[in-house]
Amino acid sequence: MSKLQNRYCAICGTEFNPYMGNQIYCSKRCRDDAINAKIRAKRVITSPIGKPTACAVCGRQFIRSSPTHKYCSDKCKDIGFQSVRAEYMATKKPQNYDRDRWRKIRGSQEYTKECIVCGKTFKTWYPQKITCSDECKKVREKQYYVKYERLPLRAEKAHAKYIKHQYGSEEAHQEYLAELKKKKQEQMEQTRRKREVEKEARRKANLIFGECVVCGNAFKTYNRQQKTCSKECGKKLSYARKQSRIPKNQMIDKDITLEALYRRDSGVCYLCGKPCDWSDKEGVVVGANYPSIDHIVPVSRGGLHAWNNVRLAHFRCNVDKSDEIIPEAKKMIPKNAYEFKRDVKPRKKKTLQFTKNNQFLAEYESTAEAERQTGVKQHGIQNCARGEIRSYGGFIWRYA
After folding, report:
1. Does residue 276 share a domain with residue 302?
2. Are 291 and 331 contained in the same domain?
3. Is the residue at 226 inside a domain?
4. Per-residue pLDDT of the chain in tens (400 residues, 90 and over written 9)
């Protein structure tokens, strides 16, 4: 609470208790109102807006566009602002703070101390100051920071003093630490048991009964997406999914395995004639020389998963061959083999190109060939040929 007497605000007239000797406003809002009033009082309109007036710097006549417009150009405006600032700085009084008076009002105290470096007596307003000058302060810092070897010893003595005062002896302190550690371990064990109970309760709540899609046996599980009862059934389901690309109404040999095919073909690739290498594998990643099953007539072209249509091949050779039919390999297939019983319609369709006026331009073997020769996207050509859109790429496309 300030020791000054109450005053009345110069703007609103409210009585208030000032905290400074020159305070004449009760709040920041009243102070801002007073400043704005002084600014408005200094604005002098010498001529109406839109009429010619004389520039305050050069005296040239100009048309005023606002009440405070006093200069004819930016150059005169800068000169006028500089002159006004120079006049203000010349009349401004220096700020002299009467520190003794403020300390007396606020209740500050002056302390008389003795410097711990030189022993000289000095006066200060700061109760935490221990040196009389900057030179003594630097000496004190050097003494404190340079002799850092004594700090660990000083800390050990302070710690021993604290242990003796708090626990009586070091043995009692160690017993207290052991007991505290034991309590923490018991608390952690209780928390662990509580979490296990909650986890088991959640598992029991999520327990469901299912039926194996492979063998039909009932099983219990916590995974709602599980479809098999064991790993063996899971492997059978995975193998069935891999063979799903083979039509169900066609004949296949289910006893074909990579090991059996390796023994039948003596471990030799039928494409390049070099032996396959079982060791060319790191984890689940196989190399170029690892053995693989290749179909002479690809499944996508009518071939079946049969013994007389499969051959052993390197992994890299199998990838390079892709779904092509090699004439030399086709000669290895016996006559009247049942892998050719399935008829597959050709995937290529002849495509015709017309202008928007229905004038014929060209004929292509497939939509892919039309894309390569014209640069028009294949999916757009197909959509137009199916009748989904009228034209694409500036042309009309139709199937032959």
Report:
1. yes
2. yes
3. no
4. 456 788 888 888 888 888 887 888 888 888 888 888 887 776 655 556 667 888 888 888 888 777 777 888 888 888 888 887 777 767 655 555 566 666 666 666 788 999 988 989 998 878 888 899 999 988 888 776 655 555 566 667 777 888 888 888 888 888 888 999 999 999 999 999 999 999 888 888 888 888 888 777 888 888 878 888 888 888 877 776 666 555 555 556 777 888 889 999 999 998 888 999 998 888 778 888 999 999 888 877 777 777 878 889 999 898 888 877 777 666 666 554 444 444 445 567 889 999 988 889 899 988 888 888 888 888 889 889 988 888 898 899 999 8
pTM, 2 dp: 0.29
In the chain, how many domains are there?
4
Task: Print the SS3 string covering the chain.
Answer: CCCCCCEECCCCCCEECCCCCCCCCCCHHHHHHHHHHHHHHHCCCCCCCCCEEECCCCCCEEECCCCCCCCCCHHHHHHHHHHHHHHHHHHCCCCCCCHHHHHHHHCCCCEEEECCCCCCEEEECCCCCCCCCHHHHHHHHHHHHHCCCHHHHHHHHHHHHHHHHHCCCHHHHHHHHHHHHHHHHHHHHHHHHHHHHHHHHHHHHCCEEEECCCCCCEEEECCCCCCCCCHHHHHHHHHHHHHHHCCCCCCCCCCCCHHHHHHHCCCECCCCCCECCCCCEECCEECCCCEEEEECCCHHHCCCCCHHHEEEEEHHHHHHHCCCCCHHHHCCCCCCCHHHCCCCCCCCCCEEEECCCCCEEEEECCHHHHHHHHCCCHHHHHHHHCCCCCCECCEEEEEC
Domain ends where: 340, 364, 380? 340
Residue range of the domain that includes 259: 250-340
Asked if the structure places residue 327 within a domain, the reply is: yes
Is 335 found in the same domain as 256?
Answer: yes
Q: For residue 126, is it within any domain?
A: yes
Is 277 part of a structural domain of the chain? yes
For residues 276 and 296, membership in a common domain is answered with yes
Please indicate, yes or no, whether residues 86 and 114 belong to a single structural domain of this protein.
no
